[in-house]
Amino acid sequence: MVAGSEINIKQWSKSEQLPEGITKFTTKVYFDTTKNKSITEYYYWSEVGNSPVAGKTLSIAEIKMLLESGDINNKFIPISNNKILISNNAYIFENESIDVSIEYRVTSDISAKHTDWKFVKEGGKYDTSVVDGELQRQMIDSIANVHFEQYDQKKVEQSMLGDPNHTIITFPILSGLYGGGRDDATINDTVVTLNSKIIDASDIGFDISTTNPNLAKLLIAKSVTVLPDDVVRVYRMIPTENNWFTNLQIARENFASILNKELSNKHLTGSFPFYKDFIEPDQLALSLGDWYLADEYKEIKRYGYLSKTRNFDMLKLYKEGVTSFKLELPTHDEYYAEHDGALRLVHSSKNALRLSYNDLVFPENDQASAKYYENALGVQIHELMGLLITYPKRNLLNNLLFGMINYMYTEKTHPDWIFKSSYIDITMYHRDLRQYAIYQRDSEEDILEYLTEAKPYHTKIRTKTRIYGKDELIKSDVDIEEKMEISLDFGNHSRYIESDTIDGGDEQIIDADNYVDIADGTWEQGRLLRTRQEYTAEAGGFDTGLLPTILDSSTVMVKQYTDATKTTHDKTYMFVYDMFGRGWRIGVDAESTATSFDGTTVVVDTPASFKTASKKNKKLIAFENETTGVIEFMTYNKKASQNLTIDERGLYTGLHTAPGSTSKVYALDTPLEMVLHGKLKTEWI
Q: Smallest Cα–Cα separation from 415: which of 253, 245, 239?
């Protein structure tokens, strides 16, 4: 284009209203039977138009932008029946005359065309917002710049940990023979995670058979702590073709900006309780920031009560007038305050997910591992999006999708597979649905007529919805029928034990008949099972009435069956009430008869039911004296054949027991909450 020249493109336009500035035009007048009035249409040349018309693929604004940008090399654009516009700036011709030879295809309909289109609506409420799965997948692949066709995961078993130098796990997908068409795995096309955490490139290796893909092995260095039941995942990566974005760095920064805005008010563990199955929240591009309920709680400098533990009665203090609390916990801080008339968590440090692609620092900053960590960023994006897909409020994904589409348009790549339609949806809110004293004319036709006149001429009304406000009360009876078969076997697991001590009396007198019956409501029975108390027969004890000695905890064994006759056992678990008055539900994984127990070693007859343990990976068991019914909780740190070496005894309930004529040992599934609250031993109380 000649320097200083100007491009003006006009199109023949039609409208029922003449735009300002148009002085030359022609008109057509006709009678519209639908509107019952005469209509004047104006025809004129216009330089305004952001959408293609009359079957064209480009608008005049887009054609002008293409010409001005100079990015029209090798273009062949028919502009009429006998005229074309061509451009090829590969050569500069300086001759006075130029001969041009053009070859073009005359056979129609042999090129690829779009035959199916989808409408995807931007916005919407959290429960009605639409997300197109195919567009979402393309967006994720484009931001990650990689995707994985082959993926596998395995739970670590004890047999995988025997080698002194490596944890060895077989993964057939590491072999180029698996599936065909791929090379053997290398550090440049494979990413490995351990419990969702990216393993460093220098800590992984491969031992791949040239003949059998089932012998392909992943080697993890012993410097990486791998324990039984850990989950190892392997991703075989390939680059993304037809990426949406030209500048991947800026696209990722825009992606991070949108997500940070969406996640700023979402508590990580509250909104995404299973996030550890997808991501490690403090690695590579991910980090943890402060979560706060509202902007007023972004910074809290004053509070009424400070605690370094959760073991206090916050609600009691709140009722007594303390309206704000700070908890300084080992992992993070929490603030509670009165909000909307209720005590709520209003601020929590390290509980809001943050994403940043600026100034990334990889664990190993060398050329050999650069491709590995770039692929690892792609895996992190895929898994993060997998986590977000589980979030029930769909508008989060819709906002993210259209945010990235809007950014894509800023790169001026003009994709031909997506465009903004000129359709509009109308929602009409009418007056309440009730009887009026005088006739009320329906306003729908008036609204549609106004929109038809006011909207741009190329905009079309796609759908219309009418909403009438009406509140009604209904009285109904609802029956709920639940069919459950639950067996509660209390047996000897009472909170009360038989002894010679009677609460509220003299420990030297064991005959309950020597005491006068206590009338109901005469004596205050005090707090049961809330704090560690001595037997109440001693000085300073509290009176509970005429009952055997009260223990500070209880254990209830629950066995469930699949039928009413209790012939098919389903599962077993325990309800445990600890010495602080907290209740736990502990699943029973397996049980075995104890052949002997000398206080330090338990001998079991089915050792396969018990997992391998170590000093850093202790296992919880319950030992039951079937003669007395007393259950003691303990841990073991070593398993050698049938022998379990006991590490700690008297946990949680404070009870100790010796073997009975028959005894059982239960392998337990330790709840995470129990681990977080720490162990309970008698001497700590």
A: 245
Q: Which residue has the tokens 């451009």?
A: 87
Q: Are 429 and 467 contacting, i.e. CB atoms less than 8 angstroms apart?
A: yes
Q: Which numeric CATH code is attached to 146-239?
A: 2.60.40
| Per-residue pLDDT tens over the stretch 229-252 | 889 999 988 898 888 888 889 999
User: Is the CB of residue 629 less than 8 Å from the CB of residue 491?
Assistant: yes
Three-class DSSP labels, 439-507: CCCCCHHHHHHHHHHHCCCCCEEEEEEEEECCCCCCCCCCCCCCCCCEEEECCCCCCECCCCCECCCCC
Contact 259, 175 (CB under 8 A): no
**Residue position matching structure tokens 């031992």:** 207
The pTM score is: 0.52
- Separation in Å, CA 158 to CA 78, 230, 494, 599, 643: 71, 10, 39, 27, 17
Interacting residues of 245 by C-beta distance below 8 A, sequence separation 6+:
142, 143, 251, 407, 408, 411
Residue ranges covered by each domain of the chain? 11-87, 146-239, 554-684
Q: What is the pLDDT of residues 394-426, one digit of tens each?
A: 788 888 888 888 888 888 666 777 777 777 788
Q: Which burial class, exposed, middle or buried, applies to 641 when counting CB atoms under 10 A from its CB (0-12, 13-18, 19+)?
A: exposed
**DSSP category for residue 250:** H
